[in-house]
């Protein structure tokens, strides 16, 4: 009788999960369609011309990093090459954009569906399930057209898949997906110690080390062939990312922009590394301070998680907090980085989850208020409205981090 009841319960959960996943993906598709029209479609600042150049070169047989410079990790390359394969050689930018957008729509719908599956697997009630799915599915309306022309939904869906696999007990699959995410965009690396600690505490050292080996193997398979072909090209790509100056939308820049408005602080903007940045001794010093704070904050999240019980609620909080710290204290804070947070914050439990979700939505909307519509006024003229919007958005991300890490009233005792 118990076996029948368990089987019925499992079937009911899978049915509920499938229904939630399909519904959430359908809502995402509707939101994605809306973002193509009206004010969303105006004044877009896009990256797809760069992607098309990469994709066309790959299709023509040129070797990335060796024959041409690429600023992204190797597992990002398929998202550039696949649209070039779909459209004819030398196709118009609009044709490439449509193919690329369709690919990202698939990634976004899959990420939303995975969020729904993970919520059901975690035993989410109706309110939490509806709120989490709504946040993930309606995010395009809050953030705007930046989703259409950036490849960040690709690593985001890989992280969502990794969390879904981890929660269902498929540790090796989870770490493999996370390794692929790391090879596509570096930010999932901050989740690796959390995943390994979760597996270690629940299943022991050996399964954790095997899972870690799987992640390392996936990264190696993606990266080492290009290192062998062009070590200097891969090194130059890595150096380009680590040596970037203080980008104009970061927390430190937001403070300097506010001081410019209040006290007339002199600021100088320079365009380099594919972004607009603040140049000078003070911005450079702030970039160093932010990097130190970033590392300290991420490590603190790792330690907090490792010292407590390995339950799903703490896993979701730790993952969202680590990525939030990585974003808000980084030297670069491009609008598309907020995409990374959506499938993570959507999983956070209880009132904390509702508060975190509301805070993130506020940050998404604030970002859209200046990007892309006021971006060049910000970058070229330090526009007052955009400057304050940057600072308020960045402080909102700090508030989101506080919400995620603030101790519960009955925080479990640390494991000694």
Structural class call reads: mainly alpha
**Number of H- or I-type helical stretches:** 17
Instruction: Calculate the terminal CA-CA distance, rounded to whole Å.
Output: 41 Å
The whole-number mean of residue pLDDT values reads 91
User: What pattern of helices and strands is seen along the backbone?
Assistant: HHHHHHHHHHEHEEHHHHHH
Largest sheet: 3 strands, antiparallel
Q: What Rg is obtained from the alpha carbons, in whole angstroms?
A: 21 Å
Shape: globular
Total number of beta strands: 3
Q: How helical, in percent, are the residues? A: 55-70%
- Beta-strand residue fraction: under 5%
Could you name the ranges where pLDDT drops below 50 across 5 or more consecutive residues?
A: 1-9, 411-416
Sheet with most strands: strand arrangement: 1-3-2
Task: Explain what you see.
The protein has 17 helices and three strands. The protein is mainly alpha-helical. Strands 1-3-2 form a three-stranded antiparallel β-sheet.
Task: Write a concise keyword list for the protein shown above.
416 residues, mainly alpha, 3-stranded antiparallel β-sheet, disordered C terminus
Quick structural overview:
The chain is mainly alpha-helical and 416 residues long.
What's the helix and strand layout?
Elements: H1 2-34, H2 48-59, H3 77-86, H4 93-121, H5 126-143, H6 153-167, H7 171-184, H8 192-203, H9 205-229, H10 231-242, E1 246-247, H11 251-263, E2 268-272, E3 275-279, H12 281-306, H13 312-328, H14 342-345, H15 350-370, H16 375-381, H17 384-405
Antiparallel strand pairs: 1-3, 2-3
Helix pairs in contact: 1-4, 1-5, 2-3, 3-4, 4-5, 4-6, 5-15, 6-7, 7-8, 7-9, 8-9, 9-10, 11-12, 11-17, 12-13, 13-17, 15-17
